[in-house]
Description:
This protein has 176 residues and is of the alpha/beta class. The chain is 34% helix and 9% strand. Strands 1-5-4-2-3 form a five-stranded parallel beta sheet, with helices on one face.
Amino acid sequence: MNTASDSATTPRSRGAAGDVLRITVLLGIFLCGGCAGHSAADDIDYTALVKTVDAPTIRQWMEEGRSFSIVDVRSTSEYENDGHVPDVDLHPYSIYNRDPMRNEAFVEEMEVAFEPDTTIVLICSHAMRASQAAHDLQRKAGFTNVYVFPGGYEGHHMKGYPSGDGWKAAGLPLED
């Protein structure tokens, strides 16, 4: 049975400091929604739901002259300031640099630019937004040949991911 003295140690009674901590944690979760391949709203790991294509396969496709398109889903500022893949199509999935605010017209823009059976490789900074974008294209527009480049343009910088992955580290073509 809870008594008045027992309730003094519950999290609800810790006062303003506890409230500030809870608000800070919730704000952090909200602002980073999608930062690690998860959507804060539905807690889905999109990286597990999409196809990937690695650097050796990209090299092979290039050597064979295979028809495929590379689409950079980073923001315009990331594309302009961080470098990019040559001859890439830019279709931002996020409106601002690493901001969780999504480009609501992304799927429609891609439907206008590509046929649903076009082979498309999506790339972002670390493959997280690209995974979300690929999932949206598959689920909402019926795209069937969408791949994500693991590690993205920059490569993963997070614990648990291999170091040295990413477009730049793989020695694939770059444009500053």
